[in-house]
Queue: 2 jobs
Job 1
Amino acid sequence: MSAQPLPLRFAGVFSRRPGTLGSAWRQPLAIAGMVLAGAWIAIAILVPLIAPYNPLTQSSQLVLAPSASHLFGTDELGRDVFSRVLWASRLSLPLAFFLVAMAVLIGGVLGGLAGYFGGWVDEVVMRATDLVFAFPTIILAMAVTAALGPSLRNAVLAVLVVFWPSYARVVRGLVMSLGQSDYVSAARLLGASSRRALVVDVLPNVAGPVLVLATLDLGNAVLLLAGLSFLGLGAQPPTPEWGSMVNTGTQYFERWWMGTFPGFAILSVVLAFNFLGDSLRDALDPRSSWAVQR
Amino acid sequence: MRFLGRRLAALVLLGIGITFVAFVLTELVPGDPAAANLGQRAIADPAAVQAFREHYGLDKPLPVQYAVYLEHLVTGDLGQSEQSHRPVRSDLSEFVPATAELAVTSILIAFVLGISLGILSAVRRNRLTDQVLRVISLGGISMPTFWLALVALYVFFFKLGWVPGSGRLDPGVLPAPHVTGLYTIDALLAGQFDVFVSAAQHLILPAGVLAAYNVGLLTRFTRSAVLEVINNDYVQAARAKGLPERTVVLRHVLRAALPPIITVGGLAFANVMTGTVLVESIFGWPGIGQYAFHSATTLDLPAIMGVSLFVAVVYIVVNFLVDILYGVVDPRIRVA
């Protein structure tokens, strides 16, 4: 048992003071991330009201450059690129949230079991994560989607396959180290049941790192799904999707607007989640903080 | 030595695991592997389907199928590409050098740039430079590579004409005699300077685009690695001796910060391979990335699995080498 107070730099990780998370929102980066992510979520909800055209309606006005009537121009089938970019948020954003939630659930449960029971359970789960980590993410996701057959549903499954292991590892590591930590033993000594120890003392400390990872993974999910669709393995035409729109853009190289605007959409969404995740990490773990104070 | 042995054993086990994953994906997941692997031919030619089933032992129990699969792998049989109608292995060996040249160049750019920016960020911590670099590095890891490639090609090739277009050499320029397959190196070895210039000009934009993500990653990593050690006692001692800050940072701080930075090497490689799959086709770069891209868009399953298996094997070997290198640079690791 150490009677010494924790070194100051760990304070953010272990204290559950109300102000800990609050400091994230005082950073300009966190605010920028909030605004950007909030704007995209608003767009995804309100798109039927704000999109000027139907994203699927074709017209004879093919590959028009951006103008007042078509802000982002039109594509090779005469569809309004601006409307398609906005509509695509309805696909990517909910999928990203769904994917990350599922990955947290699956990875969290498997990692928790591995950390709690140890032994062969731990062995099996960890070797499975090793196998997934042995492949560069998009390579494995590509192989899985191709084997299952190209469709949005299979692309989502593939992303899930490559996403769950990082949560399993984080949760396992935290459960293991926290299970042996002094304050959890203290709680047990005070008569807390193992369930109470898990819920009251372990979970809140697992939540921080998992929240950081999940926020960053929202961006990664958007990026990976767009990549798979760019390869033709995800969303299928005529569904408006950012990655496949950029792919079409590569085929109409000189019509820069066809690929550039959907790409900006991907960049801004991913950037928003990375800003948020990074600020959260700063707030929760000053040790790896960008604004490190020494 | 024991350190090396343990790592080697882990490498072999992981290698076997990878083949198992590839086996499951090639022969178990597809509803009908014969149809998936033969594509159009499966419908037209029942005899081919029968031959395929026998060749891969698909009529036998699963463990036997896996054994047959491993046997084929050991002899280098990765199946036949539907598109090129050639063994996947010969396709791969043709395309590997182009990707190797691109990947190595890109990783070099990323390490030089990322480490420099990371040091700068750490030294100027919490000042404006640091905050700007933070946004830049977050931008690097948020960028869809395939989009960056498109935009960069449009701007620097189409609009400004600073770099040549697709391919590895200008039209009409012949590669130097084949030694390594890396056009820049081969040209230097043959003393053909004009070929070297052409190859380097074609290399710079794709390598730079592929480096974007890794620059972001390495800047962040270097920054925190440098900050871990920058106020250590021996660094203070070096300062107290009156050494200029420049020397202190480059000699004392960087020396101690380097081992953790090296560990990013494996990840950097994975990022570059991910990037090549998405980007090579945009630059018309005839490597395994473009091969993977075309295989994916045409659903050429044997080719996709061949590339995946190959990249995964190279990846775990790179990770193994990084581990060893880390052990060499930081002797404490060998004990732990």
Note: Chain A touches chain B through 51 residues (CB under 8 Å).
Job 2
Amino acid sequence: MIRDSQLFQPFNDEPISVVGEAGEWKGGFELDVEPDVLRRMYHDLVAGRMMDERLGRMQRQGKISFVAPTAGHEGAHVAIAHALQSGRDWLFPYYRDIGLLLAFGLPPVEMLAQALASRADTNRGRQMPSHNGSKALNIFTIASPIASHIAPAVGAAISMKVQGSAQVAVTSFGEGATSEGDFHAALNFAGAQGAPIVFVCENNRYAISVEYNKQTGAESVAAKAHAYGMPGYTVDGMDVLAGYYVMREVVERARSGLGPALVEMLVYRYGPHSSADDDSRYRPREEVEAWRRRDPLQRFRRFLGKQGLWDDEAEATLRAEIDAAFTAATLEAEAAGSVPLEWMFDDVYAQRPAHLEEQARELLD
Amino acid sequence: MAVQTMVQTIARTLDQEMAADERVVVLGQDVGKRGGVFLATEKLFDKYGPDRVIDTPLSEAAIIGSALGMAVHGLRPVAEVQFADYVYPGFDQLASQVAKLRYRSGGQFGAPMVVRMPSGGGVKGGHHHSQSPETHFVHTAGLKVVYPSTPTDLRGLLRTAIRDEDPVVFMEPKRLYRAVKEEVPDDPEFLLPIGEAIVRREGGDVVLVSYGGSMAEVLKAADALAEQGVSAHVIDLRSLMPWDKETVLDSVARVGRVVLVSEAPRSAGFVGEVAATIAEEALDMLLAPPLRVTGFDTPYPYAQDRAYLPGPNRILKAVKRVLEY
């Protein structure tokens, strides 16, 4: 759907928000999202949170080696996923995107199998947890090096343009990524090509311990878009509907051939950078608590309540269903067993060359 | 057949592959209207237009990284890095993304793409237009590395590289771009397999193993040896990953003496890998230690580049040592 006029002006001073802290609609335009979609958004917010909690427990139990906590990012995740067409558009995510991947359609069993490096992992146990990917769903497999996936996303978008496929690529990253040269190289190329891509910065204000004001002198990430010839928007990322409306606008803009955009979603990571980090060394607890009070799940639940779409019973049912589904998925992923040793030598190339055959024999015979 | 230089062969091969497969696109700095600074993509822009011959910003990270995304989305990109010396801003894309995508995705995604780069010295270009970085790529699992030295080999190998399901770093000895003209097969299905060496000259006294730009010097050395009554068996590796161990080991086992020539720096250089393999698998057949003739472990020099590059005199000295051992 292409609107007659844009709802949002780029390079805005105040973060775009359409739902207030008390859950009241304050968009200034008519809400046009169907109740079923609103309920699905809430499902996806809760699923993202519950998967994060589950993976955290599994890490503490020693079942998985690592996790990159995502609680606090779910508003951005669900906003991105719902603005895209799953199965058609492409996602180039980073490692703090649990809720995004699930909302885009990644089956929970695949996420859990990847974390466990079990035989059910479609990525065949090749990476540490939080590094999913799915060719079937057009989800480019996550890589750790920061910002290295952004130029590939631009290449895919150029291919979409050349082939006239009316698809859109979306790539996500933290604000730390905006300091890498590859971020600049990628946005610059996308701007020059008018490629159908949306860059989403999940700005949680900390790259591990380094604060935003040590990362850049720019007043916002969105402001950087100006230099690349594309619009930039700063959005309250704890307001899922604000993110959704902005994403919907820029995704359709890109799809209709009007070029790329940069969207900065202001979020917060409640947990440490990773299971190997201690965030109490660099963040005051009061700050964390203040952000938790702005929680995207709570705000959206209040909104649904005011719309007459949600109550305590629906909440209990939803959580029980998700928990049961995740438990079943965990058991399925674990039951598949561990990956065999000989897989180590596969998928280096499409066919295993002679020297890798030799090295495999050296290890296995 | 047509008589062509190496650089003419690149443009002709790209043209044929682009005509045969609309997924093939070319991208890089100056590859469009300019036809490449060496004219390796000459006339392609006029024929195929800006959607398939893409002039990119001056950014190797953008060139190599976006080529990967194009490959993942169904194109067959052939990226040009203007000089191998300038690959480093794009090296993270090659090492972290391109080389590892198939592996890290469990084979879900591949990276069928070619990164061409004019390589090596001998053009009075100083160290930033002359380096031989092939070992970096060989050491990065997931990349294939090809380094032809003749127009015919370039024709067959570039075509194979474009059709390959895996990423190929395609190194081109720029000092031979216009040095040799030969009859090149114009058959659009003429292919050469990656990983096969070729014996350039049969001989029984010493094996000379080399690749890329140094092949010209090795053949000159072989001529000089022939005048002295020494018959050299000359192997052009053509591919470095994977490389043709059998051809090298068979020849070394038969002749017993081997000199390995590469203009890349010596320490941990590719021919050191060949020497180690010979030592591990053919020690009993050796009549003398394998000797390397290589560039030195200095940055590539400007004023002294002729002395830096392994020339016939240094090769002959090494041959003398293995013959007299």
Note: The mean pLDDT of chain A is 96.
